[in-house]
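in:
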């Protein structure tokens, strides 16, 4: 029976420390699982623009981008949901009034709000993107500004209660720890992305597996028959059906082998 596995990126396919290269054991595992005729999908919070060539070269069958806001199956877009311009502008004003610091994400780029104060998480991300040669000058002042999803950073100066209460009227709030959250338009999630991919192929959830390392991967776990936590995914481990090894110790290879993907 054909199987399908969905992979988170950061902390699952790509280490969050060191040189951030996909481990060789993961590359070998993906090649072997493909040769055996299985389907392999990336399921990430990143928009399309931030899924880099080193991942694409691994030959995945498709991608769930932006926490389910865009789906690509074998090179074809089968779903895309963005946020309307009016709600985008309303959200910017809400963030200003509550003291939240955002980075807005769209499938073709990221946008920063240069009217906000600076907070380290957003600044670190911006500098990292700049080092990779990505455009970090697009802003909420641009005529074409809009977003598919965003992250928001906060601190003691943020009216977090009001901010979360207002945002949750239109968005899901995913707590990422370290004083920032991922904000995704309803009804999109990593789970809805999986459901649409399974429907596209006519597969049952019993044929689906998901592997991740952080709490934003929990929706994936709810959408598949078998959930797998990376050994380095400490907070996710209590929710998993199976715990594989650490990313640096061949965790992806071990998981694919354990569940008969090769």
């Amino acid at each position: 029976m054909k199987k399908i596995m969905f992979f988170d990126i950061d902390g699952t396919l790509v280490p969050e420390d060191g040189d951030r290269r996909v481990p060789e054991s993961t590359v070998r595992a993906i090649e072997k699982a493909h040769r055996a005729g299985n389907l392999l999908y990336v399921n990430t919070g990143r928009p399309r623009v931030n899924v880099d060539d080193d991942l694409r070269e691994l030959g995945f069958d498709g991608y769930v981008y932006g926490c389910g806001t865009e789906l690509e199956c074998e090179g074809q877009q089968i779903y895309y949901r963005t946020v309307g311009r009016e709600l985008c502008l309303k959200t910017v004003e809400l963030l200003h009034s509550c003291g939240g610091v955002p980075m807005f994400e769209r499938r073709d780029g990221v946008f920063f709000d240069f009217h906000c104060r600076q907070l380290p998480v957003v600044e670190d991300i911006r500098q990292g993107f700049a080092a990779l040669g990505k455009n970090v000058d697009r802003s909420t002042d641009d005529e074409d500004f809009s977003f598919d999803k965003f992250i928001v950073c906060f601190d003691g100066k943020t009216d977090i209660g009001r901010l979360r209460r207002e945002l949750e009227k239109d968005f899901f709030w995913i707590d990422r720890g370290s004083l920032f959250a991922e904000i995704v338009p309803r009804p999109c999630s990593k789970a809805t992305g999986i459901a649409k991919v399974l429907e596209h192929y006519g597969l049952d959830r019993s044929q689906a597996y998901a592997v991740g390392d952080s709490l934003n991967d929990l929706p994936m776990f709810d959408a598949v028959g078998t959930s797998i936590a990376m050994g380095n995914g400490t907070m996710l481990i209590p929710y998993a059906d199976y715990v594989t090894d650490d990313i640096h110790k061949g965790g992806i290879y071990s998981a694919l082998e354990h569940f008969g993907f090769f």
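note: Helices lie at 24-35, 53-56, 85-98, 120-131, 160-167, 190-201, 218-223, 251-258.
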